[in-house]
Design a protein that fits this description.
Layout (H helix, E strand, L loop, with lengths): L6 E3 L4 H13 L6 H10 L3 E2 L1 H4 L3 H4 L5 H23 L3 E7 L2 E6 L1 H14 L7 E2 L3 E6 L6 H13 L3 E4 L2 E4 L4 H10 L6 E6 L5 H6 L1 H4 L3 E2 L1
Parallel strand pairs: 1-4, 5-10
Antiparallel strand pairs: 1-2, 3-4, 6-8, 6-9, 7-8
Helix pairs in contact: 2-5
């Protein structure tokens, strides 16, 4: 494989980085080659053989030729995706410094990263439930109808229960996830999150009965 200069990426904001790291660690479907490439770029990683797979250069002679070939194929695919994203205008060249090429996401590319996060976003079950409920209430104007539809769909995808037309509920912590979705769809003024100490609605309790069996309570 031809030699190349390392590619260094300007990290996105810490909220995005935190969520990407969480998604990659928890969700196997997020570990595709393309999504792995996006994660490396968004978190300020470096595309080099060693950086992509720490210790690989040391261990490479210990593995079979077949496994070694698969590793190199993955490496080539990541470079292929980098070049594809660059060609599509998702990445912008910043500068060359210390024998390293620096890139950052364009506004178009940032949108692609946000879509990646939204698609993979989910509510994680805590080790111990605090016995509180998260109530999401929104009043989104008609001029933001597309955002309203997307917001409802994502709430449903994440397992929220629709207790009223514009009221959804979930037992597990989800503040960051909701705030992130509000920001992506530009809905911050229209969505409120409430913490409910007690749930008396039988339909809601029945809906989450199996989910709550999976966690211990305080």
């Amino acid at each position: 494989m031809p030699k190349h200069k390392p590619i260094k990426f300007e990290a996105l904001d810490q909220g995005v980085v935190k969520q990407i790291n969480k998604i990659i660690s928890e969700n196997k479907t997020a570990k595709s080659i393309l999504n792995a490439t996006l994660a490396i770029m968004a978190t300020g990683g470096i595309i080099t053989l060693g950086a992509l797979a720490p210790g690989l250069l040391t261990e490479i002679n210990k593995i079979s030729r077949r496994k070694r070939r698969r590793g190199m194929e993955k490496y080539r695919e990541i470079w292929k995706n980098f070049n594809l994203l660059k060609k599509k205008g998702d990445l912008e060249f910043i500068k060359e410094k210390d024998d390293c090429l620096f890139y950052r996401f364009s506004e178009k590319g940032k949108g692609k990263v946000r879509k990646f996060i939204i698609d993979e976003l989910k509510i994680s079950a805590p080790k111990e439930w605090d016995n509180k409920w998260r109530l999401i209430i929104f009043d989104i104007p008609e001029k933001k109808r597309s955002g309203r539809v997307a917001f409802r769909k994502k709430l449903n995808d994440m397992g929220f229960y629709q207790c009223q037309k514009s009221a959804w509920i979930h037992p597990f912590p989800c503040l960051y996830e909701i705030e992130f979705i509000k920001d992506v769809f530009n809905l911050k003024p229209f969505v409120k999150i409430f913490l409910v100490d007690e749930m008396t609605d039988g339909k809601t309790l029945y809906h989450f009965r199996n989910l709550l069996k999976q966690v211990s309570t305080k």
